[in-house]
Amino acid sequence: MTGEANLSILIRTLHPVLNEGEYVFCCVKDLDNIDFGHLLFHFKESEGITIVVGKEYADASNLEYHNIFSWISLEVHSSLNAVGLTATFSNALYEEGISCNVVAAFYHDHIFVARKDAENAMDTLQKLSTGR
Predict the structure, then answer these.
(1) Is 71 within 8 Å of 55 (Cβ atoms)?
(2) Which of 37, 40, 73, 112 could pair covalently with 69 via S-S, beta carbons 3.0-4.6 A apart?
(3) Burial class for 112, CB neighbours closer than 10 Å (0-12, 13-18, 19+)
(4) Which residues contact 46 (CB under 8 A, 6 or more apart)?
């Protein structure tokens, strides 16, 4: 199954879910001391390796971070070739003054928003999905 690519269907079936917990973005030089069981994802850049982990793990591991995020998953199985989904939901969040960091995984899109904006982001995404 390759996922949905029709934008109107994607928007109608977003089904945003607020995952429990607090999450942080950290930059490390290598993954040698990182417990992969706590790692949501990692991405290698020329400056270092970005990791996203739970705040509790970061604190226990003395990892530096600057912001605390909530994690929203869009349960619609979106195609990696879909056009306009990220633009549509990020614009809706922008209209509410909510910054978002987006990760596209194989099945779903995941949105990280400031912890203080989580409920407003959920309301915005649900309104977008229902056309209200």
Answers:
(1) no
(2) 112
(3) buried
(4) none
CA distance 99 to 21: 18
The answer to whether residues 79 and 2 touch, using CB atoms and an 8 Å cutoff, is yes
- Give the separation between CA 81 and CA 21, rounded to whole angstroms: 30
| Pairing of β 100-104 and β 109-114 | antiparallel
Q: Residue 108's pLDDT band (boundaries 50, 70, 90)? A: very high
Report d(CA 124, CA 113) in Å as an integer.
12
CB-CB contact of 55 with 22 (8 Å):
yes
pTM: 0.94
Torsion, Cα 40 79 84 113, to 10 degrees, reads -20
- Considering only CA atoms, which of 101, 69, 74, 99 is closest in space to residue 85? 74
The pLDDT assigned to 131 comes to 85
- Beta-carbon count within 10 A of 110 CB: 19
